[in-house]
Give the backbone structure.
Amino acid sequence: MSKTALITGPTSGIGRHTAIQLAEKGYDLILVARNAAKAIALQNEIGDSVHTDFVECDLSSIASVRRAVDEIRTRYQRLDLLINNAGLIVQRRETTPEGIERTFATNHVGPFVLTTGLVGLLKAADGARIVNLASEAHFFALRYATRKLANPPHYHDLVIYGRSKLANILFSNELAEQLAACNIASNAVHPGTVSSSFGGDGNGATAWFMKMFKPFFRTPSEAAAQIVELATSEAFEGVTGQYFANSRPAKRSANAGSRKLARELWLYTERLITEPVEASQDS
């Protein structure tokens, strides 16, 4: 029986190459993305060697993610692999209609709703894996306060992005704790600084950095290979609760290893998705 992998943000950059490499390994794919035309183009590129399915979803919208979860539950009974790949960095503050800062909403809240909503399908698989894309940018998570994540009082794109990446690691760690008894592994990975369009639009300092040093970055294909290795290799069977870079456990910040912060973030997010406006006003 072929295995099924779900990947968010598969239509460009690392996500696209990850999807293609998983297809080459024989995985059927659930492509969760906003842009139907790009998803269909990727399906055509992959061809008929594996089954590909498209589910439309805007990860910045809790309502959209919940609709996607319902759709996936209707179509599938088992999920072997979930890769939370999609992410963004917003140079100027934006707020979702649900009252949450957009970077945090897309990079953490959406994946939280998606992953927790699909736990039943992951439990139905034999040794399912969850891979959460994080970043060394989590070291930029200055003055981190859980209660202010949804509506930060000050905005600097790289700091805000770093906090969301720290949240990715904390979420991954808490998933590992909660799902260990179910034989589900959860790990976070820094794929490397990648030569893509990510973060390179606009005129801010982050965009300048991305453009200036782009020639020295890893290619999306090289970054995807690391993700696919962690997601599929027998070498990582049973490994959970780790933060990887260059295919091996990597140093993480003190906050990223905090059990207290991981649990605090989980409870905060649960409250946020129930009453997003009220929770975001705590800051």
About this structure: Residues 196-203, 212-216, 279-283 have pLDDT under 50 and may be disordered. Residues 191 and 222 are 9 Å apart (CA to CA). The first strand starts at residue 4 and ends at 8.
